[in-house]
Amino acid sequence: METLEEVELCFPQLLNTSCKRPNRSHFEVIMSYIILSSITVLTVTLNLLVIISISHFKQLHTPTNLLLLSLAVSDFFVGLLMFFQIMLIDGCWYLGDLLCVLYLFFAYIIISTSVGNMVLICANRYVAICHPLHYSTKVTQKRVQVCVSLCWIFSVSFQILVLKDNFEQPGSAISCTGECVAVSNNITELAHLVFFFIGPVTVIIVLYMRVFVVAVSQARAMRSHIVAVTLQGSVKVNVKKSEIKAARTLGVVVVVFLICFCPYYIVVLSAPDTLLNASSAAFVICLFYFNSCLNPVIYAFFYPWFRKCLKLIVTLEILRPDSCEVNIL
Questions:
Q1: Residue 231 in 3-state DSSP?
Q2: β-pair partners for 9
Q3: Local structure of 246: helix, strand or coil
Q4: The domain containing residue 116 runs over which residues?
Q5: What single-letter DSSP state applies at residue 34?
Q6: Distance separating alpha carbons of residues 36 and 46, to the nearest angstrom
Q7: Which of 89, 116, 264, 311 could staple 151 via S-S, CB 3.0–4.6 A?
Q8: How far is the C-alpha of 281 from the C-alpha of 243, rounded, in Å?
Q9: 150-191, pLDDT tens digit by residue?
Q10: Residues 178 and 18 sit within 8 Å (Cβ to Cβ)
Q11: Are 46 and 296 in contact (CB under 8 A)?
Q12: Count of CB atoms within 10 A of residue 12's CB?
């Protein structure tokens, strides 16, 4: 019986207060370690490459790339926080109540900021495509810096208000030793759902649908204009490819975001108190974090300049004194 307790309990020496480990096969634990570790390494590496590229090369210091930089920074820290998620694979938290609150605090800040950055990127693309003549006056470097700063400030302020009671009394929400949860109420959960899921999803879908409609109408108008002066057959093929590419790109962004975020919030709403320890929640948390790994692929790898920056970084040519002046575009 003693051996069984040592296997099942997070802290075998605390027989009456320790949390129980979830029953998982050795294969499941090993695969979880491999998958989470791979996602962590990819997330940190890819976002670090984006950060280095945009920060180093002066030609990339534009309002649009500043938004990509902010997104990459938040996603980079998401990757670092996943090291703590790896520790929770066996369902036990060993670092104490205060570090648990700090972990949740920084996790909520970084993830919510990442969502906010995605909304800003959508808004930027909306103005660029739907109001191209006013883009240079509406979207300036200074305004983008202000928006990015407000995004981070709002995330930090919101999470301080939400987790204030947890900082005052760390561990007040746990039911057993080895658990990592935070005190919450219906109001804060509703506010979190509205500000960081329903609101962003609605804005992203509305903006991208508007962008898609305008892009398609512009492509059709261009086709009508070019048909009068060139071969109709070749133009049809080019325009058709352009429309398909626009639809695919916008569809991937929206679908990936929804696939990664919806399951997490469903679990949060259905069982918020057992999110970090429940076996069924492990997958949705990994999926939620995996979105930060996909962001640099979606937003940066589609740009030709990133592939050129990647080559310069890998070959260590960025170490040259004049490398920041290299023509990237």
A1: coil
A2: 20
A3: helix
A4: 27-171+178-325
A5: H
A6: 15
A7: 116
A8: 39
A9: 999 999 998 888 888 777 777 777 777 877 777 777 777 778
A10: yes
A11: yes
A12: 13
Q: What is the CATH number for 226?
A: 1.20.1070.10
Residue 1 lies in a domain: no
State pLDDT tens for residues 208-231.
888 878 777 766 666 666 655 555
Number of residues that make up the chain: 329
Please, what is the angle between helix 26-56 and helix 304-314, to 10°? 100
Report yes or no on 107 lying in a domain.
yes
Q: Which two tokens stand for residue 90?
A: 């066996």
Amino acid residing at 97: D
Instruction: Give the integer Cα–Cα distance in Å for 120 and 203.
Output: 10
SS3 18: strand
Q: Single out the residue of 36, 9, 38 nearest to residue 21, CA to CA.
A: 9
Which residues make Cβ contacts (< 8 Å) with residue 259, sequence separation at least 6? 287
Q: Which residue has the tokens 């892009």?
A: 215
Cα R_g (the chain), whole angstroms = 23
- The token pair at 196 is 């960081």
In a domain, 7, yes or no: no
**Quick one: tokens of 297?**
């692929």
Q: pLDDT higher for 275 or 80? A: 80
Q: Which residues pair with 20 in a beta bridge?
A: 9
Q: Which of 35-44, 90-99, 220-229, 299-308 has the highest mean pLDDT?
A: 35-44
Let me know if residue 130 belongs to a domain: yes
Q: What is the mean pLDDT of residues 108-133?
A: 84
| Alpha-carbon gap, residue 123 to 127, rounded angstroms | 6
Read out DSSP for 160-208?
HHHTHHHHHSTTTT-SSBT-------HHHHHHHHIIIIIHHHHHHHHHH
Specify the amino acid at residue 226.
Answer: I
Residue carrying the six token digits 């569809």? 251
Give the total number of structural domains in the chain: 1
Contacts of 232 (CB under 8 A, 6+ apart): none
User: CA-to-CA distance for 89 and 32, rounded, in angstroms?
Assistant: 7
Contacts of 15 (CB under 8 A, 6+ apart): 5, 9
Alpha-carbon distance of 138 to 128, in angstroms, equals 10
